[in-house]
Amino acid sequence: MHVRGIVWAGTRTHAYPAMTAFTRETLGLRVVAETAGMTVYELSDGDHFEVFDADQPDGAPYFDAPVVGFLVDDVAGGAAELEAAGVELLGPVVDLGERAWVHFRAPDGHVYELAGGRRFRRAPADAPPPG
């Protein structure tokens, strides 16, 4: 597995109204989706930050700390490598075609994510900078 970057972050909070106001008003992030108990923000590079209400039962209940998503070329392959290494997967790979992800619990006890798919475009690490 080759991790190419961090493309997603999320947090579950009991301070949902304050956190969403802070993210919009102070950080200036643009809302791209909002449902009861979850707000998705998109950064200028296309990465996402999601805020989940801790009181919303569908709001990623196993997120006990902020979570980051590591960009990989092959989410299913990465998940298989994690399983082979004895890492606990927190469900199957979710593959929506344009993007895919799987959550896992690392040795520190926290949840992380592998993410991939066409939605996450990154230049190879050895590519020259644009311009």
Describe what this molecule looks like in 3D:
With 131 residues, the chain is an alpha+beta fold. It is 16% helix and 38% strand. The protein contains 2 helices and 9 strands, in the order βαββββαββββ. The protein has helices at 16-26, 75-84; strands at 3-13, 30-35, 38-42, 48-53, 67-72, 88-89, 94-95, 100-105, 111-116. Strands 1, 2, 3, 4, 5, 6, 7, 8 and 9 form a 9-stranded mixed β-sheet that branches. A hairpin with a 5-residue loop joins strand 8 and strand 9 (111-116). The radius of gyration is 15 Å and the shape is globular. Residues 127-131 have low confidence and may be disordered.
Question: What are the main properties of this structure?
Answer:
alpha+beta, nine-stranded mixed β-sheet, disordered C terminus, about 130 residues, 9 strands, 2 helices
Q: What is the ordering of alpha helices and beta strands?
A: EHEEEEHEEEE
Q: What is the averaged pLDDT score?
A: 87
How far apart the termini lie comes to: 30 Å
Low-confidence parts lasting 5 or more residues at pLDDT below 50? Answer: 127-131
Say how many strands there are: 9
Radius of gyration: 15 Å
Helical percentage: 10-25%
What is the topology?
Blueprint: E1 3-13, H1 16-26, E2 30-35, E3 38-42, E4 48-53, E5 67-72, H2 75-84, E6 88-89, E7 94-95, E8 100-105, E9 111-116
Parallel strand pairs: 1-4, 5-9
Antiparallel strand pairs: 1-5, 2-3, 3-4, 6-8, 7-8, 8-9
What would you say about this model in short?
This protein is of the alpha+beta class. It is built from two helices and nine strands; from the N terminus they run βαββββαββββ. The C terminus is likely disordered.
